[in-house]
Design goal:
heterodimer, A: mainly beta, 7-stranded mixed beta sheet, 11 strands, globular, B: mainly beta, 6-stranded mixed beta sheet, 4-stranded antiparallel beta sheet, 12 strands, 0% helix
Chain lengths: 112, 117
């Protein structure tokens, strides 16, 4: 597609449930990044993919968070046993080689 | 380690007046600096970047930023603010394009700009 697509745009889940957030990058973009935006916290780096591998997972806040990327394209961020502090906007960005970054519109996650 | 500071959480300016959104940075090598804007319920939109060359960088929507190496600053400016400029602005510095962190962006906390009519 023309841009980075994220789904769902909004997700409300009960505490303790698992959620999956999807990012569909621009076709051909080899690098993919996940960020989390919490109120008053700015953007927090979560994980970076180059192709299907994740050289940098240093931003994942706990072992409840995981992510994968398949076929060098779509990425899924999974949060297990969600907690209220996981409520945030999750942003995905993709990039081709050393080019510019394109961000998706994000998934707003609310844990109730 | 790379880091970015945006010292102001909020900036308020009257329409037609000049605006400045401040950003300072810390990097271990040459800085690659960016400004992004976020409108409500939208993703980040690219405004401008500094990689090398002229210290004054011009970007989208009439914005510009001045790279100042001695002060490690990259302030965003616009000569005449518009109400439609009201949004959340993020400054970012990029990690080097090498190794495991290839091109990771480090963001400031954001500055909410409000332009009142």
């Amino acid at each position: 597609g023309a841009g980075v697509s994220q789904s769902p745009s909004n997700k409300v889940t009960e505490k303790g449930k698992d959620v999956e957030l999807r990012c569909d990058p621009i076709s051909g973009h080899t690098a993919l990044y996940w960020y989390r935006q919490s109120l008053g916290q700015g953007l927090e780096f979560l994980i970076y993919f180059q192709g299907n591998s994740a050289p940098d997972k240093s931003g994942l806040p706990s072992d409840r968070f995981s992510a994968e990327r398949t076929g060098g394209s779509v990425s899924t961020l999974t949060i297990q046993r969600t907690q209220q502090e996981d409520s945030a906007v999750y942003l995905c960005a993709s990039r081709f080689d050393r080019g510019g970054y394109t961000f998706g519109s994000g998934t707003r996650l609310t844990v109730v | 380690a790379q880091s970015v500071a945006q010292p102001e959480d909020q900036v308020n300016v009257a329409e037609g007046n000049p605006l400045t959104v401040k950003c300072t940075y810390s990097v271990s090598g040459n800085p690659y600096l960016f400004w992004y804007v976020q409108y409500p319920n939208r993703g980040l939109q690219f405004l401008l970047k500094y990689i090398t060359g002229d210290n004054l960088v011009k970007g989208s929507y009439g914005f510009e930023a001045e790279f100042n190496k001695s002060q490690t600053s990259f302030h965003l400016k616009k000569p005449s603010a518009r109400v439609s400029d009201s949004a959340l602005y993020f400054c970012a510095v990029r990690d080097a394009d090498r190794g495991s962190t290839l091109g990771r962006l480090y963001f400031g906390r954001g500055t909410q700009l409000t332009v009142w009519p």
